[in-house]
Design goal:
Chain lengths: 110, 113
């Protein structure tokens, strides 16, 4: 099945730094979603993007839906220790099916 | 609050055993999904269901089956568990229509020995 290309695979950053990650696809999606998964838990939705070119913020998080509808990025500003986790991008196909990236593991040094 | 509940968080089963993973949602959602999550592979769709008694194969259905007898409940069945099915299993649900959010359960960690 199709999968998105998500990068980087992992990041180890200093507290207070900004973080950027992105996803690309060979297919067009109508919706892009970003999820965060804490250790031992299920993914929780951070941001949903519904229109090409859309830029949406949620606190320190900002995400954009690429103009070509084949990519999206997520930025986290001024990272804090609780930002640690795995971040997944997902493109939504028909019938609410999601196609996921492999995830970006974020570790933050205090 | 939205709630997707997976009945077992941690299971250890023997090779060849039949395994049931249960999922219940309290949001009256039409759609329900089962994913498995493995390191470096992200989440892969096993099966999904648009309605009671309806099911469709996802990307990796081999070795699995599902049951949806009631709208709120979606069960994943491993007829004969194998060690390569050791994984984290995530259930999810959503309403119909594009742009609707998918909500996940907390996950079930299955180890097959």
């Amino acid at each position: 099945g199709q999968q998105l290309n998500q990068s980087p695979q992992s990041m180890f950053i200093q507290e207070g730094e900004d973080v950027s990650m992105n996803c690309t696809s060979s297919s067009i999606f109508n919706t892009w979603l970003w999820y965060k998964q804490d250790p031992g838990e299920g993914p929780v939705l951070l941001i949903a993007l519904y229109k090409a070119g859309e830029l949406t913020s949620n606190g320190r998080l900002t995400a954009q839906f690429g103009i070509t509808r084949k990519d999206s990025f997520l930025n986290i500003s001024a990272s804090i220790p609780s930002d640690v986790g795995i971040y997944f991008c997902a493109g939504q196909e028909y019938g609410n099916k999601l196609v996921f990236g492999a995830g970006t593991i974020l570790r933050v040094k205090s | 609050d939205v709630k997707v509940t997976q009945s077992s968080r941690y299971l250890v089963k023997r090779t060849g055993e039949k395994v049931f993973l249960e999922c219940v949602q309290d949001m009256d959602h039409e759609n329900m999904f089962w994913y498995r999550q493995d390191p470096g592979l992200g989440l892969r769709l096993i099966y999904f269901s648009y309605d009671v008694k309806m099911k469709e194969k996802g990307d990796i259905p081999e070795g699995y089956s599902v049951s949806r007898e009631k709208k709120e409940r979606f069960s994943l069945i491993l007829e004969s568990a194998s060690t390569n099915q050791t994984s984290m299993y995530l259930c999810a649900s959503s309403t119909t229509g594009s742009g609707n959010t998918i909500y996940f359960g907390e996950g079930s960690w299955l180890t097959v020995v």
